[in-house]
Amino acid sequence: MSTRSPRSEAARVQAIKRRKRQQFLACMALALALVVPATAEVKDYQIRRMLMLKTECQVVGLDIETLEQGKGRFLAACENVSHYPDGVEILCPDTEDERECRIVTVKREFRHLESLRP
Q1: How are strands ordered across the β-sheet holding 59-66?
Q2: How far apart are CA 90 and CA 104, in angstroms?
Q3: Would you tell me which of 22, 41, 63, 112 could form a disulfide with 75, CB atoms 3.0–4.6 Å apart?
Q4: CA–CA dist 50, 60 (Å, integer)
Q5: How far apart are CA 92 and CA 66, in angstroms?
Q6: Which of 52, 36, 46, 53 has the alpha carbon at shortest distance from 72?
Q7: Beta-bridge partners for 52
Q8: Which residues of 7-22 are buried (b: 16+ CB within 10 A; e: fewer)?
């Protein structure tokens, strides 16, 4: 004779079903992770870091545009507009590698402003 009550037997069956469901979901998630290829992309913090190190632009805004064939275009608005009044444009021929990104906008110097100094 069984000493277990029907209620405890039902709870045990439910626990087994729950565990099997969790194992199934974990296996499906792992299979999906293996099937879907991981893609890297240039992040905005990487562009901000590049601008901080290579220009005098203090970024206040960043627009991201994806071009054809995996190319990316970033347009940064600068707080100090003395050298980059229209912002800085960065082109990335390969959006998976930030080392390929290049600053397109040339730094401007307004020499005529120097004549205004006393």
Answers
A1: 59-66, 72-78, 88-92, 102-103
A2: 6
A3: 63
A4: 14
A5: 10
A6: 46
A7: none
A8: eeeeeeeeeeeeeeee
Going from the C-alpha of 93 to that of each of 23, 73, 86, 99, the distances in angstroms are 42, 9, 22, 10
Per-residue pLDDT of the chain (118 residues; tens, 9 = 90+): 456 677 788 888 888 888 888 888 887 777 766 665 545 567 888 888 999 999 988 899 999 888 887 788 899 999 988 888 889 999 988 878 888 889 999 988 877 767 777 7
Q: Which two tokens stand for residue 54?
A: 């290579």
Quote the CA–CA distance of 65 and 75 in Å, as a whole number.
Answer: 8
**pTM exceeds cut of 0.85:** no
The token pair that represents 89 in the structure block: 């444009």
